[in-house]
Design goal:
Pfam families: Phage_Wedge1
Radius of gyration: 26 Å
Strand content: 15-25%
Strand order of the largest sheet: 3-4-5-8
InterPro entries: Phage_Wedge1
Oligomer: single chain
Protein name: DUF2612 domain-containing protein
Mean pLDDT: 83
Number of helices: 7
Order of helices and strands: HHHHEEHHEEHEEEE
Structural class: alpha/beta
């Protein structure tokens, strides 16, 4: 309404006190004001950090990424304290938090320039406290070593190509570890020596 009043204030004194004229002028201005308000709300409702539910689904349609993944997530089996075996059979339809991660990944993949430095930059944007090392084996394969992922679903998404881009025709070996990798003579976030480093697991 504030924008409408700005235009009504421009009406000459001859028509200032004419309520029918003001109503006639306000009608189309009200429609335009609603359009402006809607346009201003787009950034909020479709901000990937704030969007939920069908808003994320709309972003997914734009990016070409469906909420339902093309694989069955890993099923967990565990022995409870009472001796009963429990299992968790995750749905291939992603919840908002995981779907948001996949959408962010797709956006970054679309911006990837094909270099390793930009791949590492992409990873640092997606994950805090998790680390990645990529090795080009020079034989159309590459090893992707990952430590610190917080869930099996994240590993499943990695293995099935939802997180980092794969160059056409290149096979990827994924190596997962919850702690820093073992390595001789290194002491970094990714690699540790004896007592702190752990052997990796291939997938």
């Amino acid at each position: 309404m504030a924008d409408i009043q700005r235009y009504l204030n421009l009406v000459t004194s001859q028509h200032q006190n004419k309520p029918k004229f003001a109503a006639w002028l306000s009608a189309p201005l009200g429609i335009l004001d609603d359009v402006v308000s809607l346009a201003k709300s787009f950034n909020y409702y479709f901000d990937i950090d704030l969007a939920i539910g069908v808003q994320l689904d709309t972003l997914g349609e734009i990016l070409g990424v469906e909420r339902a993944v093309t694989f069955q997530p890993t099923t967990f089996y565990s022995l409870g304290v009472t001796g009963v075996t429990y299992y968790n059979n995750p749905s291939p339809v992603l919840d908002d938090d995981v779907y948001r991660l996949v959408l962010r990944s797709k956006i970054l993949q679309n911006m990837w320039d094909g270099t390793l430095p930009s791949l590492y930059e992409m990873w640092s944007i997606l994950f805090k406290g998790a680390y990645i090392t990529v090795k080009d084996n020079q034989n159309m394969t590459m090893d992707v070593s990952v430590s610190g992922l917080s869930s099996q679903m994240q590993k499943d998404l990695m293995t099935n190509g939802y997180i980092i881009p794969r160059p056409e025709g290149v096979a990827v070996n994924y190596i997962y570890l919850g702690d820093p990798f073992f390595s001789y003579g290194l002491d970094t976030d990714d690699f540790k020596g004896y007592e702190d480093g752990y052997w990796a697991q291939y997938f």
